[in-house]
Design brief:
It comes from Caldinitratiruptor microaerophilus. By secondary structure, the protein is of the alpha/beta class. It has 15 helices and eight strands. The protein is globular, with a radius of gyration of 19 Å.
């Protein structure tokens, strides 16, 4: 867990004692790569992964390793996309439709990844693709994309909050089209239970109760404007975004207070990896990799959020 704002389901509960009340102590672990996290989940060295879909994750599941996607950790709210394509300010006015992206230098932070999937879906709307595309640039981080927008070395890039807001405030980037126009079912981030959690269903269920309770505080704050300052200040204190004003102005990640992931989005990612020849084994369905039992047990305790 990197303590980004969309980790609110852990951060809020840790600060407010929701996990501790249920006998769970959270220890944050950081990994250099997503594959390192997947390996730790598979071997029991990590209980819960806050991550995104990846070929390595699906391949492990195909080998019947005890890992399951169990809850939502981020999706784009229509009209408020927190993960999106941002174009350089002087380029944005020239790009009216998807086909106008042809020849534009667009940056992502990784190939064969969520970033490439998202950009590929955008380009396909205009008859283009990221595959063997010389205009696709790979940079090492989201801050590097903001810098590249500022110095004119790229025309646009995939950004996530708070970097979307930073690009806007610095006057170097404009968010281009709402993500609902090109990725209306996308599942951006996920919670994964590893072997050690699946083998301890009581702990897994208690974790999910605390997680959903935290997401409800988040939704109360950012969707209903209830106790907003409290949650903004809390997240500014414990997340990677230390500026409360920036936290308050950011487009909020969608975090489902009832926990469920978007099955169409998961299937779409599986299909993309399969199309690129990155999956091993036979055909894989979203139902094979998602297990809703923990969310459903938590909802028996908490009830549905309306």
């Amino acid at each position: 867990m990197k303590a980004v704002p969309s980790d609110a389901g852990a951060l809020i509960g840790m600060e407010k004692g929701y996990y501790r009340e249920l006998g769970i102590e959270i220890e944050r672990l950081d990994f250099k790569t997503g594959q390192d996290m997947i390996n730790a989940l598979a071997t029991g060295h990590l209980d819960v992964g806050f991550t995104v879909t990846a070929a390595g994750l699906f391949n492990a599941m195909s080998r019947n390793v005890k890992m399951k996607i169990v809850a939502d950790k981020g999706y784009n709210i229509p009209g408020k996309g927190y993960y999106r394509l941002v174009l350089r300010k002087d380029v944005a006015s020239q790009v009216r439709d998807f086909k106008d992206l042809k020849g534009k230098r667009l940056a992502i932070v990784g190939v064969g990844s969520l970033d490439e999937i998202a950009l590929d879906r955008i380009l396909r709307k205009g008859g283009l693709t990221t595959r063997n595309n010389p205009d696709i640039k790979v940079l090492s981080s989201f801050p590097d994309i903001v810098v590249a927008l500022a110095n004119g070395s790229i025309d646009g890039g995939m950004l996530i909050e708070p970097f979307v807001q930073q690009a806007i405030q610095k006057g170097v980037g404009d968010p281009w089209k709402d993500p609902s126009e090109y990725e209306d079912n996308a599942q951006i981030a996920i919670i994964v239970y590893g072997t050690s959690m699946i083998e301890r269903p009581d702990v897994a269920n208690r974790f999910m109760v605390a997680y959903l309770r935290s997401l409800r505080d988040y939704n109360d704050a950012f969707m209903k404007n209830k106790n907003r300052k409290e949650i903004v200040d809390l997240l500014a204190r414990v997340s990677t975004v230390k500026d409360a004003a920036l936290m308050d102005s950011m487009l909020p990640a969608g975090l489902n207070p009832n926990g469920y992931v978007r099955m169409k989005g998961i299937q779409s990612d599986i299909d993309w990896y399969a199309e690129r020849g990155m999956l091993q084994g036979g055909p894989l369905k979203a139902e094979d990799v998602v297990d809703n039992r923990y969310v459903e047990e938590a909802l028996k305790v908490l009830g549905r959020y309306e």
